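job 3f2a | input accepted
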Amino acid sequence: MTEIKGNLTEIFSSVQGEGPYLGYRQLFLRFANCNLNCSYCDTNFKELDSVKIHTIDSQENLTSIDNPVDIETLFFYIKQLDKSTKIHHSISLTGGEPLLQIEFLKVFLAENFAKYKYKIYLETNGILFEELERIVKLVDIISMDIKIPSSTKNTTETWHEHKKFLEILVENKSSKIEYFTKAIITSDFTEEELYNIVWCIASSESNASLILQPEAKNPPSAEKLLYWQEKLLKHIDIVRIIPQTHKILTIP
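job 3f2a | predicted structure (252 res):
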């Protein structure tokens, strides 16, 4: 039987730059490939021959390893970066889109659950709901994007996929899973998109949480941001405005 391997681009120690866990130290596993092509994305998620391993200080590159990576090797380097100090709040599975590699994720997360017990933080574009069902009970925190057409410039709308994704999260809320939604918005954000967000979130969850992230290159004005927040708060319990601080601080 062929040993299952995952396609990654980076393994690194940094701080979370988005959402309610802003500033928490995390170990990031960046997965290659994505099923979207968002106009604002500045991440290189193409498959590479090697995986870069580094820390928050970009000059402190530790090593690189062959890609794809087997699970034993991945945990070895996770333990090397975490060391005995246990400074990391959690392991962030980011990308790209991690759920595209569901077979690898399923084995990796089962191994972690059985042996290592690291807290797992999944960053996802909130579209691959069938894949989510297969690993949802092995994840602690889920950061789910809602992809806004005026921001992403993607031609295919994903509202129905987001709604199904959220419904699975709601069904599993009685277990240990914590989740929140976030949306990058620009000055082109529309009323129709606002009501589609409400349709996705408010109809699925009575105690929902949404993070609005102004896009760095084309942000809404402060007045517009407060206007959108006020309108959303009529339907969604928690709506916070939090910028993407890793871009401000120029850290990974």
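job 3f2a | The first strand starts at residue 5 and ends at 6.
job 3f2a | closed
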